[in-house]
């Protein structure tokens, strides 16, 4: 009798546990692994709890959108390790982000997990989150508290990214465009935009998502053709193979080195889509054609 009673208690506890787990958007393990699998340090439980709570407050109800949000946040904060713009920690960057309307001694350089900048953004964020100007009067609340660091990041996402329709189709490039597009989607820093996508692809895997597949679309041009030049790179996700699959860091090693302009991508270490190899062969031919014509000139 007692055994039977205990047995039903265990079943009830088991069911409750599963229910509680299933109710959260992501588990603690998924959150932790999403950082460590990207070579970042293990997070605190406070970070996990703050993410879950604020995701609810800001109506992020899909794991896919949360994966995109976290990928951007991890890139911006180097895996939740920096909540102040690194170049400004010592100096406060007294000459940057100035409009002339700042009070003496207050500086609005990048803070929080998505690097909130400029007086006006601090003001809008503060009034939306708290209905007052506390983040303007004390900008360090954004960098020195989990609440402020995550709150400003979710606020930014909610205002500038959340409603982009292509998110539902897995088009991650659009989120990069909304966060740092002018710097990374055009010009020479496209590799940085791709690295955001590499982090996203890993989180996608950790979260066991299956559809829609991660797509780079929305930032830099995506297709290469006969007319490509050095300003139109082509990137693809590579994966470590065989023995190297189990080696920490190899996922990022493969993506960095196989997508480099001068790729170092041994077949027995990394597996990449064939398109990437074709692209690099084509670029190599273009380069040698160029140098041979220049050297042939009298
Ligand atoms: C801040 O909010 C005001 C009022 O809603 C708006 O006009 C302004 O464009 C916002 N500033 C930024 C940088 O988004």
Summed up:
With 298 residues, the chain is mostly helical.
CATH class of the largest domain: Mainly Alpha
Spell out which ligands are present: 2-acetamido-2-deoxy-beta-D-glucopyranose
Form type: globular
Based on the structure given, which CATH architecture of the largest domain is correct?
Orthogonal Bundle
Average pLDDT number: 91
GO molecular function: chitinase activity
Keywords: Disulfide bond, Plant defense, Signal
Protein name: Glycoside hydrolase family 19 catalytic domain-containing protein
Domain Glycoside hydrolase family 19 catalytic: 77-167
How would you describe what is shown here?
The chain has 298 residues and is mainly α. The relative contact order is 0.09. The chain has 12 helices and 2 strands. It has a two-stranded antiparallel ribbon with strand order 1-2. It folds into 2 domains: 13-220, Lysozyme, CATH 1.10.530.10; 221-298, no CATH class. Bound molecules: 2-acetamido-2-deoxy-beta-D-glucopyranose (NAG). 2-acetamido-2-deoxy-beta-D-glucopyranose (NAG) is lined by residues 120-121, 124.
């Amino acid at each position: 009798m007692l055994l039977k009673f205990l047995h039903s208690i265990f079943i009830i506890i088991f069911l409750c546990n599963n229910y509680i787990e299933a109710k959260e958007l992501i588990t603690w393990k998924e959150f932790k692994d999403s950082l460590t699998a990207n070579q970042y340090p293990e997070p605190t439980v406070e970070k996990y709890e703050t993410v879950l709570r604020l995701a609810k407050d800001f109506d992020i109800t899909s794991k896919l959108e949360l994966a995109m949000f976290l990928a951007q946040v991890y890139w911006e904060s180097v895996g939740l390790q920096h909540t102040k713009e690194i170049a400004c920690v010592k100096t406060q960057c007294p000459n940057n982000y100035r409009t002339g309307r700042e009070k003496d001694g207050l500086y609005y350089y990048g803070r929080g997990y998505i690097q909130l900048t400029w007086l006006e953004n601090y003001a809008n964020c503060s009034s939306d989150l708290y209905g007052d100007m506390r983040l303007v009067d004390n900008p360090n609340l954004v960098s020195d508290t989990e609440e402020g660091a995550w709150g400003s990041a979710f606020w930014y996402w909610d205002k500038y990214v959340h409603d982009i329709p292509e998110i539902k189709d897995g088009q991650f490039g659009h989120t990069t465009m909304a966060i740092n597009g002018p710097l990374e989607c055009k010009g020479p820093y496209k590799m940085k935009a791709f690295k955001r996508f590499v982090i996203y692809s890993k989180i996608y895997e950790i979260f066991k998502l299956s559809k829609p597949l991660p797509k780079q679309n929305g930032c830099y041009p995506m297709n290469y053709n006969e007319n490509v030049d050095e300003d139109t790179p082509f990137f693809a996700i590579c994966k470590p193979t065989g023995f190297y699959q189990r080696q920490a860091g190899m996922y990022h090693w493969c993506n960095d080195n196989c997508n480099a302009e001068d790729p170092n991508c041994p077949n027995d270490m990394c597996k990449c889509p064939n398109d990437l190899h074709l692209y690099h062969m084509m670029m190599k031919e273009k380069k040698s054609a160029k140098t041979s014509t220049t050297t042939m000139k009298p």
